[in-house]
Amino acid sequence: MDAVNSILRFLGILSETKNEDIIKIITVMVDQKITFSNINFDCDLHLGGHQKNIVFQRVRRVFRIGLTNLAIMCIDYPENDILLEYANALFEYKNIHNEIQRIENQNQEKIQISIQHFFDGLLNESMKNS
Question: Where does the YcbB domain lie (predicted)?
């Protein structure tokens, strides 16, 4: 979990409100050594359908902050390999590219953040770094 916290801190979302939802989900994944699609939200996190949707909405809001922070870092440091690795592993590079364009007012397209892609990428990155 230290590696997870380090990545979340790097993205600037470790101290965000509602970050505990992310921590709960990734803790289940790490403890059970499972991917996001294998989580039983009802049993593992005691979340029914409606509650799960609310959590996903809160998580997406926090992810959007991380996406924006990472996109800004990519603008400032385009040659940084760690930024590019996180961009692809956590958000998919196309989303970072679209967010950079949005920041630079070239594109107002709404970006779809894949919760599954982020959590699976976070798990993989944290395992690689630990």
Answer: 4-122
Instruction: Provide the residue-wise pLDDT of the chain in tens; the chain has 130 residues.
Output: 899 999 999 999 998 888 899 999 999 999 999 999 999 999 999 999 899 999 999 999 999 999 999 999 999 999 999 999 999 999 998 999 999 998 988 767 777 889 999 999 999 998 885 5
Domain of residue 87: give its range: 2-123
* H or E element, residue 43: helix 41-44
Domain count, the chain: 1
Element (H, E) at 12: none
Which residues neighbour 105 within 8 Å (Cβ) at sequence distance 6 or greater? none
Q: Does some domain include residue 90?
A: yes
Q: What is the maximal distance between C-alpha atoms in the chain?
A: 44
Question: Is 54 part of any domain?
Answer: yes
Beta-sheet strands, E only, within the chain:
none
